[in-house]
Amino acid sequence: GGKDRRSGLILTIPLCLEQTSMDELSVTLDYLLSIPSEKCKARGFTVIVDGRKSQWNVVKTVVLMLQNVVPAEVSLVCVVKPDEFWDKKVTHFCFWKEKDRLGFEVILVSANKLTRYIEPCQLTEDFGGTLTYDHMDWLNKRLVFEKFTKESTSLLDELALINNGSDKGTQQEKERSIDLNFLPSVDPETVLQTGHELLSELQQRRFNGSDGGVSWSPMDDELLAQPQVMKLLDSLREQYTRYQEVCRQRSKRTQLEEIQQKVMQVVNWLEGPGSEQLRTQWGIGDSIRASQALQQKHEEIESQHSEWFAVYVELNQQIAALLNAGDEEDLVELKALQQQLSDVCYRQASQLEFRQNLLQAALEFHSVAQDLSQQLDGLLGMLCVDVAPADGASIQQTLKLLEDKLKSVDLGLQGLREKGQSLLDQISNQASWAYGKDVTIENKENVDHIQGVMEDMQLRKQRCEDMVDVRRLKMLQMVQLFKCEEDAAQAVEWLSELLDALLKTHIRLGDDAQETKVLLEKHRKFVDVAQSTYDYGRQLLQATVVLCQSLRCTSRSSGDTLPRLNRVWKQFTITSEERVYRLETAVAFHSSAEKILQECPEQPEAFNEMEQFDEIEAVGKSLLDRLTVPVVYPDGSEQYFGSPSDMASAAEHIREKLKLVSLKKQQLRQPEATTPES
């Protein structure tokens, strides 16, 4: 990379201790001298023979060899000698002696004095200079350059042959030529990338001196032939562009042929085996399982079609890409292929979708029919079981359940009609894509099946409705029966409560006649309430007898309730009569006693007969005795009015009034006793 003071290139020959092969050295020198341009060679070479690690005989042989290899180009040979060896006089004399014969000057010089002849900036560090040089780096770049030159030259020849062959002859000759030489021996992209990288490296090394501080050397420009790299790259790009166009045209023709072939494959299959598969599938099944089996079969058919539809999508994309390329010569053919393919695929897809929708509608119809059939079976099962409810609430609950089930059946039948009509509508449209086949028979079977299912469900539903009406009437009568029995039992309870209230709370007899009369009137009203309760219970029990006869069953409670009702009413009647007797006796007692007590003592003639006093006392005592006697019922049981303390309180008022009557009687007797004495 260095230059001498005459701008000639410097050639350095390092010698080593090992034996140097002159043949190899000669070949190497020939190679190195072939690199520079003729302009560089005309300026001559300065050769540095580094003999510091070699023998004198080897150095001498090398110098003499230069005469045969580069006699005209060498202007100066600098032999770098070792510091301690060789005889200066001998060596100097020998080189001086051979000067005229060699044709160039030979200088024997030490390494530190080499700068007398060559500038330090043009010498490497091995000779005390400052020139930056990496031999391995130079060697690697040189190898890359030579590889690029060789590959690019060969590639250019191949591309030119391919491109020129495609420009001549008929269309068939073009195709044969392209087929024969279609693939180059090396990848053009790789070669171009290598050339660009090499050119980028050369350009970078040329201009990095200003930034990196390294002096620029013309070696890269002159020895690595940067212009040659650029020229090869330009030629390669031109030929490669033409080659790409040739490949594009051939690829386009090949792609068009492949598209045509694939389009016909898709069309032939869809119009052949695919259509035949659909022609054989017309039934809708007579149950859920049958419809599901047909759906599974249809899914298998769809799966086969999906593979061809995927090919259609791919072909459609390829055709669209070719149409966007805008080649007029292929537009008409491509559009015709695209239209043909789309028509066939869309028609087949529509048929598949129609069949799938038909099978789905059939499956839904059979599913609704099965659900409705199960509902009717459940309703019929309830109606066939005899009703044996425990109470009216359970009857109401059962009746509500029946009504709900019947309503659910109505909704199910309505849904079945809707599904059936929808399915019939689809079947009526089925002949529009029958490919000329008469599908009347197949459709009639399907229509008859659908209508038969709907009619059968309607009849079953009507039978269940009739049975529900009968069951509803029976259950309503049972509700009335239970209600009557419950109300009759309630009447017995009410009457028992009235009896209990009569015995425990209706105790007072009144302090005077007026109060006793009021109590007697209240008692009569109380008895009227009890009478109404008894009559109400009797009417309810009579109603239960009628309902039992209508339902053809025996009353569960009327046989027990009626004796209870009569027994309680008998006890109430006896107790009431006793109460009436006591109140009436009390009224008579108070009335007589009050009348006597209110008479004036100045009228003794009104009491001439003492029998009245005796009668009043007898009534009072009889009433007192009656208060201590219990009420005796027909079954021998006894009941007292109130507690003993209550009875004692009621008797106390009678006794007090008896005392007043006795006192009045004595007062009246005293005047009668004093009169005879006077």
UniProtKB/TrEMBL annotation:
Residues 1-135 form the CRAL-TRIO domain. Keywords: Repeat. The keyword Ribosomal protein does not apply. InterPro entries: CRAL-TRIO_dom, Spectrin_SESTD1. It comes from the Eukaryota. One of its GO terms (molecular function) is phosphatidylinositol-4,5-bisphosphate binding. Belongs to the SOLO family. This is SESD1 protein.
